């Protein structure tokens, strides 16, 4: 059994626990939601002295994800989330979205609302430097999360792991994002010596239960993917 099938089975179990399906639409002065296409995932196109990047929102083979899952931008750059398949949102971890604050304090809490038509898009221009964590409202508990670093990492997102809700996913490290510029899905973090699992794994697995954690731990350790 490959890791994708294994994790899909776990996601199905988590869904039984009750994935949230509520979506709110928050007003945002520098964001827009509209129907239309975009550039390739992670690709940038210059315009007006800034760059526009595209992140795809995808449902595929029982998985729900943003691609790229980690992206580095500069102040003034714009990110456009484009719906490739399924029904998704791009919602900031922000108090204005009834979520833990994980974006810079002086940044607005963007929320696309639920996008349902293929090709629909939502854009947000990043002004404040720092780390921005976000999620898909219907699929956060199934691991659909992402991170954008604007300029230098910083802010509440750097102070701890994402909330330990079932299936909250692995968030790419900000340093890795800055170094790579763009990290495609699936994100597999590097680990420490002796095949140890990274702290992001334990944060994500916190709500899954001891038995599931043990199975996933054994499976991933055997795979060697966290070994140096």
UniProtKB/TrEMBL annotation:
Highest taxon listed in the record's lineage: Archaea
Cited PANTHER family: PLASTOCYANIN MAJOR ISOFORM, CHLOROPLASTIC-RELATED
InterPro entries attached to this UniProt entry: BlueCu_1, BlueCu_1_BS, Cupredoxin, Plastocyanin
Sorted UniProt keywords: Copper, Electron transport, Membrane, Metal-binding, Transport
Identification of the protein by name: Halocyanin
Known cofactor(s): Cu(2+)
Region (Disordered): 26-48
Cofactor note: The crystal structure with reduced Cu(1+) has also been determined.
Domain Blue (type 1) copper: 55-149
Compartments (UniProt record): Membrane
UniProt: Cu cation binding residues: 136, 139, 144
Biased composition (Gly residues): 35-48
Subcellular location, principal: membrane
